[in-house]
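Appendix B. Raw example, untouched.
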Amino acid sequence: MQTLLSHFFRRALLVCMAAGLFGPLAAQQNQVQQRSNTIFAYPKFQKAKVLQPFGRYVTADANILLKNAALCYMDGDTVMQANVANILGVEFNDSVRYRKVEGVAMGRVIAEKNWRSLVVVTTIDMDKYREETVGGDNLPFFEMSDLNLFLEIDGDSREEAKGYPLEERYYFLIDGVAVRATEKNIKKYVKPEMKTAFKNLMHDKFWSWNDAKSLAALLAYI
């Protein structure tokens, strides 16, 4: 009996040690693959405020194209990609806000603190999409030549019917500048009094550059 109990406790200890070693790592790496059943952020175009400099705005039936996170709007029955040269962002339903990040891309605001913002740019993961659809025959496609877009739209015809795979890129908006969320980019913006805390945070195995909650915590450091 004593031998059996000893064997049991040894196995239990090994299991606990394995959970302690690999549990946090799995929590960071087990990122759920986000997917969309449409090529736009919203199933239908919605009334939105298109924000311009000096507090000005115009309203439009708008949406965000997931190919490149571009702002699109309806011009009659035609979908148009907006010229964002004089556009700061867009607001849907006075609650969901996007800000221009890079080129034509719009990033959704997910956290704010001290006039700093954390935004996420969501686009279709084209590499993964091609991997999943290569070799498909007679598939229905959606084409918008003006937007350089060519995508399958009948998700039910695909073998897995899981929708379009998405990828996310995080940015901090600091003094009007979009800064990609990486350690190399962000550490130069860390407050002097927070540099030690930031260094310690970088060694925290529960913290991740791919996690929105982790990144939101950085707003107190910059």
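End of appendix B.
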